[in-house]
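WARN no homologs supplied; continuing
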Amino acid sequence: MQIERSNTCNNSPKNRFVEEFTLAIFQEKLENFKEQHTEQWFEIVGQVSTELADQITEIQRIKIISSISHGKFGACTGVLSAKQQTYSFVVHYEFVSTTKKVVDHAKLFLIEEKDN
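OK structure emitted
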């Protein structure tokens, strides 16, 4: 898998965490983040078909455009490519507090890009 990181996370440890956590979601490596999320923390917004879910598990490239955090909130935007298709995404995070890097809730917004 090819990963292209943003330049937006270098100034803040919490921004860096948002980017790393987002990559862990797509790489299915959340075991490294067991202590950084509550039990019922993840939600996918919109309808995700089984076909789309299968494609997402075969990601070839992830490009992080930006990651940002402020107070209890954070977000990561980017593009991923899988099986000849491209998807834009944003993951919106809400943390348990302004100081802790523990995700209370995350919403993944995923949009399939169509060729014109």
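The CA atoms of residues 30 and 110 lie 19 Å apart.
OK
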